């Protein structure tokens, strides 16, 4: 078998070195392995090896501290960092100090071999020299060592040295703003401002003014000039949360900014150049919103340069003990009583589905610290806190003042109660939307006497979109009658 390249392996664990030696040797690589950083440094400084695989923790030196010295003498040498620490800080430090890639332990050998092949066949440039030391691990914005979070850390580490636009997907409470802040705080714009704007919290008529600012007298009540969020975020990061709730008119202006790199204030005439990195987030399916005519397709592709999906807490339940300890330390530092969670109670917390995700977990921990006198929280307390509230009577009739939201909630409550302990089959979201769309479109067509142009305008849909929905749902259109 021909030699595909020479790899230097450094790990204090002899069993891991043996596994790597065998796995790499079987596919044609020549391997030299050591258990200390000094030997690795000597080999590399003498010109040996075409690639390095090194652990972070070694008896004589931290592998991350060795990286900058290796990159100074061998800037084109790819270095793959392994670590059992599994924190965002480790991944970020590895990327900042010039690592080609970062693999958390335990790693998949097939994934390692793929990374090795890429590193040797398509060497990448060095990302940067050693950056300033990051904050202590306890101050990190993201907590978790689960496989789901490891992939998030790897992607984020690769984004730190870039200005690429990122679109973060995730349910409410999964930490989308924390990820956006981490991308800013550990990225190349860390010395600039971080400005956040929640689209769902701003009245539709004020969104353009909030984003782009306005001139004095631009509209009734504009007594002074206002610097919008783009101006406030100049040189830094603008985080647009709940981007799916942005009105179409504002979407058009945002698209123009992303395309041309400039904007005008409301009531202004002079274009203003902007240097801002955009990070957006949503808990909605934007592709479906595009299909419904509620979100511009061209803006979607401008924002979706790097999609990043945050897993819900139920997909990373192994992180819950670390999160609970983190929140307990936080509330203790804020003056609330110090608490611990019993093993049975922690197991109960891990088995809960957490519809509110990390935010719900944090609120629970704060409630436990504030309301319960016991130093050790037992399973009885957790069962009481996580007990489902009593459901409304099944046969309760709607009141005359009941809203559409209330009616839908009553229907869904009855629907879920019929499922017992089982979950409905997949596709519930689309099925429920279909249930709503059919009567909405039918009654809208009836209200406009079958005039599809008027119905599309009233619904806020593109005419072709409305026609497609009529065909898909087999809705009968009767013209001229009401």
Automatic annotation (TrEMBL):
The molecular function GO annotations come to:
ATP binding; phosphorelay response regulator activity; sequence-specific DNA binding
Residues modified as 4-aspartylphosphate = 55
Name its GO BP terms in alphabetical order. Answer: regulation of DNA-templated transcription; regulation of nitrogen utilization
Which GO cellular component terms, listed alphabetically, does the Swiss-Prot or TrEMBL entry include? Answer: cytoplasm
Question: Where is each Response regulatory domain found?
Answer: 6-120
> CDD domains under this entry?
AAA (cd00009), REC_RcNtrC-like (cd19928)
InterPro entries annotated for this entry?
Answer: AAA+_ATPase (IPR003593), AAA_lid_NorR (IPR058031), CheY-like_superfamily (IPR011006), Homeodomain-like_sf (IPR009057), HTH_Fis (IPR002197), P-loop_NTPase (IPR027417), Sig_transdc_resp-reg_receiver (IPR001789), Sigma_54_int (IPR002078)
Keywords, alphabetical: Activator, ATP-binding, Cytoplasm, DNA-binding, Nitrogen fixation, Nucleotide-binding, Phosphoprotein, Repressor, Transcription, Transcription regulation, Two-component regulatory system
Q: Where in the cell is it found?
A: Cytoplasm
Q: What is its main location?
A: cytoplasm
Matching entries from Pfam families are given as: AAA_lid_14, HTH_8, Response_reg, Sigma54_activat
Q: Pinpoint the Sigma-54 factor interaction domain residues.
A: 142-370
Q: What does this protein do?
A: Member of the two-component regulatory system NtrB/NtrC, which controls expression of the nitrogen-regulated (ntr) genes in response to nitrogen limitation. Phosphorylated NtrC binds directly to DNA and stimulates the formation of open promoter-sigma54-RNA polymerase complexes.
Q: What is this protein called?
A: DNA-binding transcriptional regulator NtrC
Q: Whose protein is this, by species?
A: Ferrovibrio terrae
Gene field:
ntrC
């Amino acid at each position: 078998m021909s030699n595909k390249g020479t790899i230097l392996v450094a790990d204090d664990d002899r069993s891991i070195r043996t596994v790597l030696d065998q796995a790499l040797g079987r596919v044609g690589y020549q391997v030299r392995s050591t258990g200390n950083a000094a030997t690795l440094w000597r080999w590399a400084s003498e010109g040996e090896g075409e690639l390095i695989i090194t652990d972070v923790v070694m008896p004589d030196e931290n592998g991350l501290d060795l990286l900058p010295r290796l990159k100074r003498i061998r800037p084109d040498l790819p270095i793959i960092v392994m670590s059992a620490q599994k924190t965002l800080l480790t991944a970020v430090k590895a990327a900042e100090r010039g690592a080609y890639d970062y693999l958390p332990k335990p790693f998949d050998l097939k994934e390692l071999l793929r990374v090795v092949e890429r590193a040797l066949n398509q060497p990448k440039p060095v990302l940067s020299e050693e950056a300033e030391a990051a904050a202590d691990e306890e101050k990190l914005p993201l907590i978790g060592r689960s496989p789901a979070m490891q992939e998030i850390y790897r992607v984020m580490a690769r984004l730190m040295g870039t200005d690429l636009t990122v679109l973060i997907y995730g349910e409410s409470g999964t930490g989308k703003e924390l990820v956006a802040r981490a991308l800013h705080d550990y990225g190349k714009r860390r010395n600039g401002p971080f400005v956040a704007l929640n689209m769902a919290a701003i009245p539709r008529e004020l969104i353009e003014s909030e984003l782009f600012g306005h001139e004095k007298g631009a509209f009734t009540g504009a007594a002074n000039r206002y610097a919008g969020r783009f101006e406030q975020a100049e040189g830094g990061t603008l985080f647009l949360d709940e981007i799916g709730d942005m009105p179409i008119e504002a979407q058009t202006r945002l698209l123009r900014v992303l395309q041309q790199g400039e904007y005008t204030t409301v009531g202004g005439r002079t274009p203003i150049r902007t240097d801002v990195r955009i990070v957006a987030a949503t808990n909605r399916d934007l592709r479906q919103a595009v299909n419904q005519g509620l979100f511009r397709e061209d803006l979607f592709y401008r924002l979706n340069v790097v999609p990043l999906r945050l897993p819900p807490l139920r997909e990373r339940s192994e992180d819950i003990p670390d999160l609970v300890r983190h929140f307990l330390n936080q509330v203790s530092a804020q003056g609330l009583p110090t608490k611990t969670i019993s093993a049975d109670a922690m197991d109960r917390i891990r088995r809960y589905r957490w519809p509110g995700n990390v935010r719900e977990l944090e609120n629970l921990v704060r409630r436990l610290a504030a309301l319960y006198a016991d130093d050790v929280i037992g399973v009885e307390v957790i069962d009481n806190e996580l007990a489902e509230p009593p459901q409304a009577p099944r046969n309760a009739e709607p009141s005359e003042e009941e809203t559409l939201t209330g009616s839908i909630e009553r229907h869904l409550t009855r629907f879920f109660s019929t499922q017992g302990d089982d979950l409905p089959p997949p596709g519930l979201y689309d099925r429920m939307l279909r249930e709503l769309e059919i009567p909405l479109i039918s009654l809208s067509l009836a209200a406009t006497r079958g005039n599809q142009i008027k119905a599309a305008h009233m619904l806020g849909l593109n005419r072709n979109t409305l026609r497609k929905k009529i065909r898909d749902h087999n809705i009968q259109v009767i013209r001229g009658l009401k």
